[in-house]
Amino acid sequence: MSQKENITTVRPRSRFIEHFDIIPPAELLDTMDDQEEEKKGEEEEERQRVYLSADEKLGKKPTPLYGLSTSRLADNHLFYSPTPSTTHSTPSLSASKVSNKRKPINVITTSSGTSTTGPIKFDKKLRSLNKADVIIKRYESWYKFIILFISWLSEIERLCSQSKRTYQLLSDTSSKSSSNKSVNDIQATLYSFTTDLALQEQKLAQVIQNEHLPSLEQFRKQCNYSIKSLKNQFGLGLEEFLKRAEVTASFMTQLAQVCKDARGTIENGAQVTNDPWLVNLYLLRQLKREVDEENRLRELMVPIQKTILNFENQLLESVQNAIKACFNKPGVSTEQSIKILNHSVENNWDTFVSLNQKDIVDEANPLKQYLNINYPYKNDPLVMTIHKGQLERKIGVLNKYSRRFFVLTQSGFLYQFKLNDKMAPEYSIYLPKCNLLQSKDTWFEIQRSGSVLQRDKSYVFRASSSEEMATWCKLLSGYTLRTP
């Protein structure tokens, strides 16, 4: 499967090729309006606050506030199955089918999109992962280094203090006077030299003790605090994302099966029971829910990455200064050491990012676009939209014209949506079982012949112009039995 985000247009072989879209209409992909989303979000937060308070009283680990219950994963918006009054019903997408015994496809989300690589097993270890796990491990690595470096620097400070005392003893020995002037001059030289060495050792010990060690201790505390904060930050948990990815994988499995079944059904001249277009519509909505959760995590990662980058820069500067202070002792060859040290500091973050590209968020483009993610059968002709638009249809007891949104699919279904509620079709017509009657005006009629179990039915539509009516009739006639 291609991992490219730039999707190449795959046009199906049809005489209506000019009317195909790459994906279902964008206005059908909205999961819910803003008011409904905001209301549900407030209700969920209130419920989580109640649970959190109860857990604290019982001494339990609180449930993440961002978490959604399992029941919400199978809500009516995802698995809604409209039941029109006709026997030519909309292809159903039930929760039982989504949670069937088929093993879900392994969904791996990368910077270039989502790919599928086979069955996936969601074990407890996987569900306990933290989105910032790679950052936590890096903090832990720095923490160990800081402790070791503090120990090394403390030992240098101890040795310097010990050397200072030793040089002072040598100074006292070399300062003894003699009647021989030459001896006195030599002793004075030795005294001056050992005194200078003692002062140098004392100065280095004081610098390490008063400047470098306190600074490093602050970095140690800050590093330890960052580790605990990231581990206890509930918003970074991957449980909800993995749940959504698992449901998305089940949808992909179902889409693959529905496309195969529909293609075989069409070749045999039978009626399609499950329209791949509708399954793909629900899949795209679920994929959007998954990517929305991933984007929420990715947005949290951006300030975390900036924080650790700033921490590392300051820490490395402090370490570099401490090492250079030690290198200033006489007799130490520092040129090559300083060169290696500077190289390590300069390439620190870039090297880390290059080795962990899949876990590090691109701060310039932190968010993913779910429409750019490739998955099996995304460009299958059976999931394409032939035509879409608004029409008026006679509805209700009074048989008055009411405006609705309609979508014509490759499998021969004409779906009817409410203008203010495009969550799921409120009605569907299977055109291969119908006749089309076209008028000279702006209206046309779809007639369905009755049977033993159902009566004759007609659907009257009106377009806003004769050109629009002609377009719809031309496309519909390709699926109906005949055009009177």
UniProtKB/TrEMBL annotation:
<protein>
    <recommendedName>
        <fullName>PH domain-containing protein</fullName>
    </recommendedName>
</protein>
<dbReference type="Pfam" id="PF20400">
    <property type="entry name" value="BAR_4"/>
</dbReference>
<dbReference type="InterPro" id="IPR046868">
    <property type="entry name" value="BAR_4"/>
</dbReference>
<feature type="domain" description="PH">
    <location>
        <begin position="384"/>
        <end position="481"/>
    </location>
</feature>
<dbReference type="InterPro" id="IPR011993">
    <property type="entry name" value="PH-like_dom_sf"/>
</dbReference>
<keyword id="KW-0597">Phosphoprotein</keyword>
<dbReference type="Pfam" id="PF20399">
    <property type="entry name" value="PH_20"/>
</dbReference>
<feature type="compositionally biased region" description="Basic and acidic residues">
    <location>
        <begin position="37"/>
        <end position="54"/>
    </location>
</feature>
<feature type="region of interest" description="Disordered">
    <location>
        <begin position="26"/>
        <end position="54"/>
    </location>
</feature>
<dbReference type="InterPro" id="IPR001849">
    <property type="entry name" value="PH_domain"/>
</dbReference>
<dbReference type="InterPro" id="IPR046869">
    <property type="entry name" value="SLM1/RGC1-like_PH"/>
</dbReference>
